[in-house]
Design goal:
The complex is a heterodimer. In chain A, strand 1 and strand 2 form a beta hairpin. By secondary structure, chain A is mainly alpha-helical. Chain A has a two-stranded antiparallel ribbon. Chain A has a single domain, classed as Amino acid/polyamine transporter I. In chain B, 34% of the residues lie in helices and 32% in strands. In chain B, helix 8 packs across helix 9 and helix 10 packs antiparallel against helix 11. Chain B folds into two domains: 190 residues; 144 residues, Nutrient germinant receptor protein C, domain 3 (GMP Synthetase, Chain A, domain 3, 2-Layer Sandwich), CATH 3.30.300. The radius of gyration of chain B is 26 Å and the shape is globular. The chains are: A mainly alpha, B alpha/beta. Chains A and B meet through helix 5, helix 6, helix 10 and helix 11 of A and helix 1, helix 7, helix 10 and helix 11 of B.
């Protein structure tokens, strides 16, 4: 297999992956927990996120050429426990892909097309992501490299314009008593950052050994923390923490207010449409990852992508079904989005993977 | 073959994402859009009156279009208007001004603010005005003439607001945010008055102070002449006019330049935090005086500066008195106290700020008479 993903593609990929949950979850959740200190939450999350990145890099260093997370897990816990864990992970990836489809549809419906059935967006994106998931992983990394300057530039433009409307009394002062809230808010930022690192780790099978060094990935992580902090400054600084906490998509509400060069306004539809890129990347990457995990959990070798005629469409159909049936209304979507998914992500990142890695190390299998 | 199929699928998917298939009615040309630029809300008991005005189309020589309708809710009233304007599609995305009548504002502005925040079409920071002594419907329907209407007048008022109160008219999101966090907010007030511009009698809109909204309801107004005091206190300090008597009893009109208001923690003899000190520092030039202003005479200049300081304190004191009477911190004194004190004193500051009506406040003013424009006085 030709392995041509390089370390300089990991940072942009993780950044693009980050943007979808960052805007869905972070500003409102951090404002609810940390109030004015939401921006500080993002910065405080850097240290634990760096520790998680360090752990991921150590784990990646233990793999053999061509191995990914699934193979590592199977080596750490061979036999039935490992296969059961892989099955759970594979199913989770399918469900998460479905959740991303549903969240993308919700964003479109709330910000641009109210009243449109979610199924329309879910099925369209599932079909597009399925078509892309037949390509090798290196194509996902390349597409992330293409999306990265576009979404980063748009984010910078929006935040640059939003910072002019920021009111400092919405961000300062921070009372000593608010430290607990700020730390709770940083858990949300950590969740998003750890999720992006974990999702980027799905590229491992085509990443040569030694490309995932900690020092090379620290700068993109710092950039991601800074981006989260700036998003909080822009949103909370403009609306205030209380109003931000009540908004469904505060970042896109902020975009709705922006006027560029005193003449261009109401560009939210264009910007919301751009966030299709991160969703597309996540879903196509997760479908590939789910296929790999499920195939290995069933004790089979992972077939080449060209021969995955049934597995990938099945994964995509399951993800679409999850999107349509698991959260048919706004209340259940909010429960999934604000409670279940973040909790599951934190569990996977800080309990599931470290525990299996520790087990593998203790038994000398890794 | 598979690549071609994938490419076809992707292209079809992108077309579908544009929403064209679902929204054939949006394919109408822009010429069929009625671009609403000002909205008015008046609630009386169960009936809500919604008013809409477009801008005049000077290129075609067409005046503004004014529409109003009643309903139980805002959307109900909007549907009624849409039904009447069947040949045109109402387009509210570029609404630049929202008005609410005084009576409705006294009943509460939360319904309107929630609607704006929830609305997909309206910007959340659209400026909100309270129509003093009248209804929003009257202001939008009657202001202006056949060539220009309320939109053009409101644009002009919005542009002049920063000069009077130091900032642009607060938008709905800012008001909603302030109400959520501090329970009170300020909104620009306007009044519909008669005018005889261009030799014909007509109604126009003028800025008329500022509405103080407490717990979602209009509680009081800051009068137009006290806006300078509000500006001095909030520290934005635009240019204002002060009229004072000099040492010889002559009326002197001073023009203040943008200055600064410093907020400092006020402590007692034991260094315990007891309140807030606001130090207003201004420069002023003599703009008008009946006779000579002897500025080179130190005694005269000091007396003039002292008179100006007294006037600044009088204007600021009136606004503080209003804040005390409403027990509402619309001057954000609590926030400023938190910013001014040390981290160790934050809890004490929050405790003091919890009762804005009794927060100890010391006001000081320092006015230096800088120059007298082009005339060498004295």
């Amino acid at each position: 297999m030709k392995a041509d993903i390089h370390h300089h593609q990991l940072g942009p990929t993780a950044f693009v992956l980050l943007l979808s949950p960052a805007l869905r979850l972070f500003p409102a959740a951090a404002a609810r927990s940390a109030g004015k200190g939401a921006w500080l939450s993002a910065l405080l999350a850097f240290l634990p996120a760096a520790l998680f990145l360090f752990f991921c890099c150590r784990a990646a260093a233990r793999r053999r050429e061509g191995e990914g997370i699934a193979e590592l897990l199977l080596r750490a816990a061979p036999g039935r426990p490992g296969r059961a864990a892989l099955l759970a992970l594979g199913l989770w990836l399918v469900c998460y892909a479905g959740f991303v489809l549903r969240a993308g549809a919700d964003r479109m419906i709330v910000a641009v097309y109210p009243g449109t059935p979610a199924a329309f967006f879910v099925l369209t994106m599932a079909a597009a992501a399925l078509a892309a998931s037949f390509a090798p992983l290196r194509d996902a990394a390349r597409s992330a490299r293409l999306f990265y300057p576009v979404v980063a530039a748009v984010l910078a433009l929006v935040l640059g314009a939003a910072l002019t409307a920021v009111r400092k009394e919405n961000l300062l002062p921070l009372a000593r008593g608010s430290l607990g809230g700020v730390l709770r808010g940083s858990l949300g930022a950590l969740d998003v950052l750890a999720w992006a690192i974990g999702a980027a780790a799905l590229l491992l099978p085509e990443l040569p050994k030694g490309e995932s060094s900690f020092s090379r990935l620290l700068a993109p992580l710092a950039l991601s923390c800074a981006a989260l902090a700036l998003i909080s400054v822009g949103v909370v600084g403009s609306f205030g923490a209380e109003l931000t906490a009540e908004l469904s998509w505060p970042f896109f509400s902020l975009v709705r207010n922006l006027v560029f060069f005193r003449s261009v306004e109401r560009v939210e539809a264009l910007i919301v449409a751009l966030w299709v890129f991160p969703d597309f990347l996540i879903v196509s990457l997760f479908l590939r990852g789910a296929r790999r995990c499920l195939a290995l959990s069933l004790g089979r070798r992972v077939p080449p992508l060209g021969k995955a005629r049934l597995a990938l469409p099945l994964c995509a159909a399951s993800a679409a079904a999850f999107a349509l049936f698991a959260a048919p209304d706004a209340q259940r979507f909010a429960l999934l989005s604000q409670k279940i998914v973040p909790a599951a992500n934190l569990f996977l990142s800080f309990v599931f993977f470290p525990a299996l890695f520790a087990l593998g190390r203790a038994r000398g299998r890794l | 073959m598979r690549r071609r199929l994938c490419a076809l699928l992707l292209v079809l998917a992108q077309l579908a994402l544009g929403g064209c298939a679902l929204y054939p009615e949006r394919l109408h040309g822009v010429e069929r859009l009625l671009v609403v630029q000002a909205l008015g809300f008046d609630r009386q008991d169960d009936a809500l009156t919604l008013s809409m005005v477009s801008a005049a189309d000077s290129a075609r020589g067409e005046g503004p279009i004014r529409l109003s309708g009643k309903g139980l809710t805002i959307l109900d009233a909007a549907d009624g208007i849409s039904a009447r304007a069947a040949d045109e599609e109402l387009f509210c995305a570029h609404t630049g001004h929202v008005l609410i009548g005084e009576e409705s504002a006294r009943d509460g502005v939360n319904e309107l603010l929630r609607y704006i925040c929830r609305s997909r079409e309206l910007r959340m920071d659209v400026p909100l005005y309270i129509v003093r002594g009248g209804s929003a419907e009257d202001a939008l329907m009657k202001a202006g003439d056949s060539r220009s209407g309320a939109v053009e007048i409101l644009e002009m008022l919005a542009a002049s607001a920063p000069k009077r109160m130091g900032s642009a008219p607060p938008g709905a999101s800012r008001i909603a945010g302030a109400l959520e966090s501090g329970g009170c907010a300020l909104a620009v007030a306007i009044r519909c008055v008669g005018s005889s511009e261009r030799g014909e009698e007509m109604k126009t809109l003028v800025l008329d102070g500022c509405g103080v909204i407490v717990d979602g309801k209009l509680a009081a107004f800051i009068e137009e002449e006290d806006l300078a005091g509000l500006d001095f206190l909030t520290g934005t300090l635009g240019a204002h006019t002060l009229q004072v008597r000099d040492g010889e009893g002559k009326l002197v009109t001073l023009r203040t330049s943008p200055g600064r208001t410093a907020a400092r923690a006020l402590r007692d003899d034991e260094r315990k935090l007891v309140g807030l000190e606001l130090a207003i520092a201004l420069e002023a030039a003599v703009g008008e005086v009946d006779g000579r202003a002897a500025l080179s005479d130190a005694e005269y200049a000091d007396a003039l500066a002292a008179a100006a300081e007294r006037e600044v304190l009088r204007l600021a004191g009136r606004v503080v008195a209003l804040e005390r009477s409403l027990n509402a911190d619309f001057l954000s004194l609590g926030e400023r106290l938190s910013l001014a004190c040390s981290a160790a004193e934050r809890e004490r500051a929050e405790e003091l700020a919890s009762s804005p009506g009794t927060l100890a406040l010391r006001l000081t003013a320092s006015v230096s008479i800088s120059h007298s424009n082009d005339v060498r006085d004295g």
